[in-house]
Amino acid sequence: MDFGKLITESFNIAWNKKILWIFGALAGGVSGFGGIFNLISYVPSSLPFESPKDKALSTLNVLGANTASQDNQVWYKTASDVLFSPDLQVIILIILAALVVILLFGLLAAFINNLANSALVYSIINLPEREPKLNEGLKAGLHFWFRYLKLNLIVISSYLTLIILLIVVPLIFFLLSLKIIGIIFAIISFLLFLLSIFILGIPVSIILLIAQRIIIAKNSQVIDSLKEAVLLFKNNLGNSILAWLIIWALSFVYGFLTLFLTFIIGAPLVGIVIASFNTSVAAGITVIAVSAVIFMTIFILIGSVWSVFQSSFWTIFYTYLERR
Q1: Which keywords are on file for this protein (predicted)?
Q2: Of 49, 116, 129, 324, most Cβ neighbours within 10 A?
């Protein structure tokens, strides 16, 4: 395969099909910031009536149990003070609310990310016969996003299963008081985990990328796409690994250039902000806001082009594998 041609075609798509930048920006990641926790569900500690825990203690006093189990009463009172503390209840509510918000943001991010990725692949795979359109991409994304999510969950659950097994086996030996064997297995498990990242990580990521394209190209279900992706990977092992190494090298270059660009753009902006604060606080805040918008816009655009390039690279690579 001509990888030079593959890179050129991918870059041409990423640069010329600007409508795809929208999907590229969304596929690159979704972030959210929220501060929605203002829970003041407070009950005063000095109540005009006897609380249940105090009533229980007074009952014990009447029965004379306090003289026999003074330590237990003290422990009970201390524990119940903590458990029934209004401050603790507020903290628990805040933690639960935070977990719910994080879960909702995670689900929203997963939906948008998978929708954008599937819309990108659909738009690219139909080139050059059909020019990308926003409404068609969105329609395809809504149709395929859940299959993409299931595909990702299968891969993630496989890794989690491996991690759990590598943790559970040494733990069993520790519980059986076989500490030396447990330590040996813990070391072996850690080494196996590191090896799995490098040995299994590359094939799994390539198979995942190929399976994503099969889902859209052939309207396949998740399991069928995985089976076919595994066969394509096995039959084209050398080219698949080489493609991964090329995109990895390009990712390294992209990261270095992005970091360099950050310093090039950031240094003058910092100087302008400092100078504006010397004028007035209001001017400084205004310059910070404008600079942040400019900075974020530039890097969102760069990230969008990069996302489209990567999607184009793997989509064209997949079509090459199918034609062989």
Answers
A1: Membrane, Transmembrane, Transmembrane helix
A2: 116
304 and 117 Cβ atoms separated by less than 8 Å? no
Q: 3-class DSSP state for residue 18?
A: coil
In the chain, where are the structural domains located? 43-112, 131-235, 239-324
Distance CA 210, CA 233 (A): 8
Local confidence pLDDT in tens for the 324 residues of the chain = 789 999 999 999 999 999 999 999 998 743 333 222 333 333 333 334 344 444 444 444 444 444 444 444 544 445 455 455 556 777 888 899 999 999 999 899 999 999 999 999 999 999 888 899 999 999 999 999 999 999 999 988 877 777 777 777 777 767 776 677 767 777 777 777 777 777 788 899 999 999 999 999 999 999 999 999 999 999 999 999 999 999 999 999 999 999 998 888 888 888 888 888 888 888 888 888 888 888 888 889 999 999 999 999 999 999 999 987
Where helices occur in 69-178 by DSSP H, the ranges are 70-83, 86-125, 134-175
Contacts of 301 (CB under 8 A, 6+ apart): 21, 25
- Could you say which DSSP state residue 33 is in? -
Phi-psi region of 49 (alpha: psi -120 to 50; beta: other; left: phi over 0): beta
Q: How many CA atoms within 13 Å lie on the side-chain side of 193? A: 15
**pTM of the entire structure?**
0.74
Please give the structure tokens belonging to residue 161. Answer: 């299963």
